[in-house]
Amino acid sequence: MSSDLSDLYQHVILDHNRRPRNRGRIPTANRSAHGDNPSCGDQCDVYLRLDGDRIADISFEGSGCAISMASASLMTTLLKGKKADEAAGLYDRFHEIVTTGKEPEEISDLGAFAGVHAFPARIKCATLSWHAALNALRGDPAPTTTESHTD
Amino acid sequence: MPSTWDRIRDEFPTLHQQVNGHPLVYLDNAATTQKPRAVMTALDRFYERDNSNVHRGLHALSMRATDAYEGARARVARFVNAAAPEEIIFTRGTTESINLVAASWGGANLAKGDVILLTEMEHHSNLVPWQLVARRTGAALRYLPVTGDEGLLDLSALDRLLTPEVKVFAFTHVSNTLATINPVAELCARARKAGAVTVVDAAQSIGHMPVDVRAMGCDFLAFSGHKMAGVTGIGALFGRRALLESMPPWQGGGGMISSVDFHESRWKPPPERFEAGTPNFGDAVALGAACDFLDSLGREAIRQHDGALAKMAYERLAELPGIRLLGPRGERGGLVSFAFRDIHAHDVVTFADEDGIALRGGHHCNQPLMKRLGLTSTARASFYVYNEEREIDALVASMRRTLKFFGSAD
Ligand SMILES: Cc1ncc(COP(=O)(O)O)c(C=O)c1O
Predict the structure, then answer these.
(1) C-alpha torsion sign, points B183, B189, B190, B195
(2) Neighbours of B184 (CB within 10 A)
(3) pTM of the predicted structure, to 2 decimals
(4) Which of A105, B96, B208, B223 is 20 to 30 A distant from B78 in Cα terms?
(5) Domain spans, chain B
(6) pLDDT, tens only, B107-155
(7) Cα of A114 to ligand 1 centre, how many Å?
């Protein structure tokens, strides 16, 4: 297996794909948003319970490749307890990692997604759930589609 | 006499390359086929010698170009056994051909209370044009069901669905996801008895098996050149002459189409009536060369070759753990779609690419069918004249490696 491919399918990603965290709909959710990847059919719903501007609880449901499902799973673990602006900041970091391949300086599971940058077609798999989460945070009910995002 | 089959791979330059350090195994032929030298040469020759606009100049080049273009039309007519070249309209491909029928024939003949009968296995391009014309005319859509994973049309439901309100029955010859070969002649005969016009989507059959519009008894047949060893950007619509003559233009004067009082004499007869603007004559000439190439191989021989590979791939893949295979077990078109229980199709396709194998992964423009089968995506291997048994070995070996990586190997 090439190093590009083993960088893409890192242990962290395989683990989240196999045992997704926070999967399913939380009954107490007060926000949700849907994300679609029309060219490949990937889908992701993100559910939030917002307490003020803090994410008290978060979960996802969806279907897609290992990259998109692992990204959604990891995202829920990182966003739980965060404030809306912290979530946006984390997304910016994540976006930089998947588009440039630069590993984060501090230790973070986000670094597992650095390998995505070598597979440009897969960047939108990695970012789908994040777009849905940010839309949910903004209270934007319009479904997000990765086709309209330049990444 | 040496047959083209003997050195078939030499005819296709694209095949001779390495991808990710492995010899390319191209199994995405249902999306588009590779092009033989004969087709590319025909295209080059036309542009090097004869290029000029058609049907207008009186000079030598324009006459040669017109002859080449009309020659290609006659060649395509022979290829599908149409009664006359005038029954062939050049289009951009299957999608545009179906849009032409839906907009022109549908716009003029459908009204509220009428029904458009489709099947659950239609490609988006034999679905969305009908949804558009249904919305415009008030006609309703109705679907002939698919039986399940074995992917056959439920013919027992046909009599119930083919009511007198059904004005048109549009269906695919070969499914691009299930590989089902539908009984076109029977479907056309039953539709005709019920008074419905028939539209056959031949995108997946045209390059793979004999296609004879008169034996089928269809009213319209749509196909794309790029799926039959031709170049992209050209395809055709066959239409029975009497029907074409009764139809209004669909481009060139949008507003006219909604006017009720059409005067036949104001338009040129078919096929020109449906070819507004400078046609794609260069690619049409190359399509004629693709017809020659496929006939030199023999289309019955192609059907057997592609069908045998697909059947073999089905049987070999069936041995893998956690695999779900779609489509008929017996005779099938030249492709096989499959899904693993625990591995998404896009991961499968990414790992295959690593081994130099080109597969398609996704919903294959068959979203309603996928939903009906409870799937979101499948991987698909599709075969053509240059594929070989060893490429199925490579596919199966690659799938085993993928299964092992994701920890689902037995
Ligand atoms: C069954 C079927 N119909 C229609 C089409 C559309 O063909 P095109 O995109 O060449 O118009 C395809 C191609 O994917 C197909 O497989």
Answers:
(1) positive
(2) 24
(3) 0.92
(4) B96
(5) 5-30+298-405, 40-295
(6) 999 999 999 999 999 999 999 999 999 999 999 999 999 998 999 999 9
(7) 36
| Assigned token pair, B256 | 């006219």
Cβ of residue B119 lying under 6 Å from some atom of ligand 1: no
Domain-by-domain residue ranges, chain A? Answer: 3-141
Would you tell me how many other CB atoms lie within 10 Å of the CB of residue B323? 17
**d(CA B191, nearest CA chain A) in Å:** 34
Architecture of domain B40-295 in this structure: 3-Layer(aba) Sandwich (3.40)
Quick one: CATH architecture of B5-30+298-405?
Alpha-Beta Complex (3.90)
**CB neighbour list of residue B111: distance below 8 Å, 6 or more residues apart:** B137, B138, B139
Cβ count near B26 (within 10 Å): 22
Choose the CATH number for A3-141 among 1.10.3720.10, 3.10.560.10, 3.90.1010.10, 3.40.1710.10: 3.90.1010.10
User: In terms of C-beta density within 10 A (0-12 exposed, 13-18 middle, 19 or more buried), how is residue B52 classed?
Assistant: middle
What are φ and ψ of residue A31, in 5° steps?
-145, 150
Angle at A33 between CA A30 and CA A36, to 5 degrees: 165
